[in-house]
Amino acid sequence: MTQVFKFGGASIRDADAIRHLGRLLAHFPERPLVVVVSAMGKTTNALEALLAAARGNDPDDYRDRLERLRRDHLATVEALFGASADPVAQRVEALIADLDRRHRAHAGRERPFHYDQTVCFGELLSTTIVSAWLDEVGLTTEWRDARELIVTDDTHQEANVDWAATAERVRGLDVEDGRIRVTQGFIGGTAKGASTTLGREGSDYTAAILAHCLAAEGVTIWKDVPGLFNADPRRFDNAVQFGRISFSEAIELAWHGATVIHPKTLAPLQQKAIPLTVRSFLTLEAPGSTIGGDAFHDGDVPAFMLREEQTLLEIRPHDFAFMDEARQHDILGRLVTAGLHAGLIDAGAMRLSLCLDSHPARLEPLVASLCADFAVVRRDDLTLLTVRYPTASLLAGLSEGREVLAERRNATTAQYLFHSRECPATWHIPA
């Protein structure tokens, strides 16, 4: 059965990384194999800056940035192929020329449309080079344009997949002939041929879409870390790696702020019970972390999520009335309109408490709106700690010496809101 591998920009950032990718894939001779590749390194950032220069009517800056993009990719081609670089270099040159033509053609269009016609070239360039290198080292490939496989609507920068049309096109991949299919993450195309992008975590989502349509055996996302952890290792000095968790648990962790796989990636895999494994492209022998259909291992170790730069709003009716369903509906509706997510919601008879991201452009209009109709007490500079599957002793250790401004608990989850000044730069999970 088909396997789908996804490689991010860090795993193909330069010629050495692409060589390493070739050696890694040589360890997996089983076919069929579909390889989804992101743009190289910081290429998407460079393309966004190129777009800004094009739309800012700064032709000199635009030309400088386009030439830098061209030189960087050609330097990678030269480092990989040496004297035999010409055929690949010509394909790279053709893509750069096409990018330039599209900028001229779409300069007057709305920015989201123009954005999608620009940033897609990062993945087109990277996969052109990667596919050619894999052929060079004896791993025969077929390069496929994801814009012709993944059909979307025209909601640019956050396109929605047309699943029926996509499934029909993906079935035409004919993955059974022994060649590795190499395609792009993050991008798709409308039925009329306009380029689109899939939004946040789009490359992971691409791998899930293809796996779903191919009824794949599994998806592997290769990262520069060995797997998924029960806490951010940069903030918790004794974080441990998950061996296996369920789709539903991974979605819970993401909802509470963990940097795990995005729920939109997990949904199409969960529908067909296709496991997703995160592995290290740096250390092939390191065991990975798998997200699958069973929940047997959920709760084996507690998980910890931090949300910093939080604001607590305590909202009460002016007339000392109940905070009933009608008032809660009104307040939460305003929250939706503001585009804010409440990491913690706690209701009392005459009070509704909301813990929100301190996003000034969104938060301040919301606060002003609420203050017009309710009594509002606001606290800033807070940290929200969420713990999945806690024990009483664990919670006592985490909260010791800190004022708890708000808390919420249920059978599987506890949340504490602290002053940020009372929180350490590096946390330690109590034994």
How many domains? The number is 2
Number of strands: 17
Mean residue pLDDT = 94
CATH A-level architecture of the largest domain: 3-Layer(aba) Sandwich
The CATH topology assignment of the largest domain is Carbamate kinase
Describe the structure.
With 431 residues, the protein is an alpha/beta fold. The protein folds into two domains: 221 residues, Acetylglutamate kinase-like (Carbamate kinase, 3-Layer(aba) Sandwich); 120 residues, VC0802-like (2-Layer Sandwich), CATH 3.30.2130.10. It has twelve helices and 17 strands. It has an eight-stranded mixed β-sheet with strand order 3-5-2-1-8-10-11-9, with helices on both faces. Helix 1 links the parallel strand 1 and strand 2. Helix 2 runs antiparallel to helix 3 and helix 2 packs antiparallel against helix 5. The chain is globular. 38% of the residues are buried. The mean pLDDT is 94. Pfam families: AA_kinase. This is Aspartokinase.
